[in-house]
Amino acid sequence: MTYTITLPNVTREGAVVVEQQLRGLNGVEYVDIDVPSETATVTATLTYAEVLDAIRQSGIPAN
Q: Is the separation of the CB atoms in 27 and 45 below 8 Å?
């Protein structure tokens, strides 16, 4: 599945943290963080809730 997740007020540094967190998970196939639009596009075999939880565990707000 491909998900688009909102990352309110994400910074470039925060985007790097999110990308590293997600790329380290089994089941994540693709990650693209767009800082200007404050979104992350993630393709994964994980559920939306699992992806969202992983981002939040990195300390970055997401919804």
A: yes
